[in-house]
Amino acid sequence: MTYVDFPINSHLERLAYDEVRENPSLFSDTWMSILGGTFGFFGVMSYNVARFKPAYTGVWRYPIAMAAGVYAGLIIRDWRREKVRTKWAKIKHYIELHPEDFPPYPARTKIGDTLSPWVPMRTGW
């Protein structure tokens, strides 16, 4: 995981850290494929149940449906990644064209600097 060096002074600096988004984890690479294969398996099984047939009927359909589901999961994963890349590129391009709409971030203040002095009044209860 990449840690950002603070302070981030502008919106473009915030968008410059793309290595987290571009280097996905093993789980984010495979979950869509696993879900597609699972849907394929249970789709064939529900088809057999709806037709009042045993689960092992048409057993050749299971691997075909699972392979089709895995392939569909890969296609959807790549489509989503391209959509996200395009979205971030559009945002970055807009910020580069209109810097006046995005002022720099204000300086960070600590909570202790914002508190005013306080003297407790003790009444002696």
Automatic annotation (TrEMBL):
The alphabetized list of GO BP terms reads: mitochondrial electron transport, NADH to ubiquinone
Q: State the source organism's domain of life.
A: Eukaryota
Principal location listed in the UniProt entry: mitochondrion
A matching Pfam family: NDUF_C2
Cite the entry's keywords alphabetically: Electron transport, Membrane, Mitochondrion, Mitochondrion inner membrane, Respiratory chain, Transmembrane, Transmembrane helix, Transport
For this UniProt entry, which segments traverse the membrane?
30-47, 59-76
Example GO CC term: the record gives:
mitochondrial inner membrane
Task: Tell me which InterPro entries the record gives.
Answer: NDUC2
Is Transferase included in the keywords of this UniProt record?
no
Cellular compartments annotated: Mitochondrion inner membrane
Q: Does the keyword ATP-binding apply?
A: no
Instruction: Look up and give the membrane topology term.
Output: Single-pass membrane protein
State the family named in the UniProt similarity comment for this chain: Belongs to the complex I NDUFC2 subunit family.
- Its protein name is Uncharacterized protein LOC117652361
Give the originating organism: Thrips palmi (Melon thrips)
